[in-house]
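Practice record 12: protein with zinc ion.
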Amino acid sequence: MPPTPKKRLAKARTRSRKANWRLPALTLIPCPKCGNLRLAHHVCPICGTYRGMEVVEIEVKEAKKEKGKEAG
Ligand SMILES: [Zn+2]
């Protein structure tokens, strides 16, 4: 026999438990270099800087052909 709950949970109990499921709001801060909103403690996706240093080289988006090559 499958395990069965001994008692039925009240709707309020289920719903109050699920009330805590939502994710916390994202922390967005303006980038000091370009002013774009970015996630805190993350490299800026627009200018590729973190703590004033350029960490990631941002490529200019080109034709969709290249993306197809990367996927396949
Ligand atoms: Zn930036």
